[in-house]
Amino acid sequence: MLQIKTLVSVGLTVWLTCLGFSTSAQEWPSKSVRLIVPMPPAGTTDNMGRLVAQKMSELIGQVVVVENKAGANGNIGSDFVAKSAPDGYTLLVSGVGSQGINATLYRSMPYDIVEGLTHIGMIAKGPNALVVNPAFPANTLSELIALIKASPGKYNYASTGNGASNHLSMEMLKSAADLNVAHIPYKGGAAAMLDLMAGQVPMMFVNFDSAVPHVKAGKMRAIAVTSLTRRQALPDVPTVAESGFPGFEAESWTAISGPPNMPAALVLRINELLIRIAQMPDVREKFAALGLEASLLKPDAMKQFVKQEVDKWGKAVRASGATVD
Q: In whole angstroms, what is the distance from residue 231 CA to residue 29 CA?
């Protein structure tokens, strides 16, 4: 009788595996899940990670613990996850920097961005906003470009650091519009935005969700966004694309990844959770207020998206000349 039960159990496991399921996916999660944020607390990546952790915990009935492992523009935390067990209990909040820009920015990488992680699904994406100090004499992108061209080398712009998406967004604009404007890299967004609002630097690109409250408070003025369409949170701000540069797009994004070689069924299970989270009314409302868009990419499409991002941002990095040893 024991032998018959064993044969039935083995047969059932084989049958489930053939259908795309696995015992590990069926059992997951049986304990708490670690969600690694490879950036410091309080930024966009951290905020998105904590939102996902809260909602995922509610859906799976297990605690999802957020753990910040910052450093090297996301490489340290990402590498930690890349070398973790592929059992779904260690996941990564990935993004445009660590899973896009870094591939070209760093001379050597501790992990392969495309193949060294399992790209499970997107949380949200959003544009950068080109903002200026309220006293700066330019209200539109065309006026800004005219000022820069009239006095080449006179103006500068801030960024959150060499190789950040806001640095490279300006480099893309510089290339498209043939501008001579100097780069002043800061160590983080808070210091850069404070100096912009104080008039120490006249302009910068900044993550849209970070810009919105300051723009609404009148502390900075937004003159363009880097998405292909305008954003509900600031509907009067045109896109760079409609301001004379068709096709211009440079969006930041946040996703969930895991170690390589995760079981396909487990990847789909987590992807379905992300889609459910993205469709929650309160999440959609929060995203809209911040100018973010939820994305419902499946794992195969997510991997293809990452490949495209590595290529797109790689061109901007090479054009800027930025490198990190």
A: 37
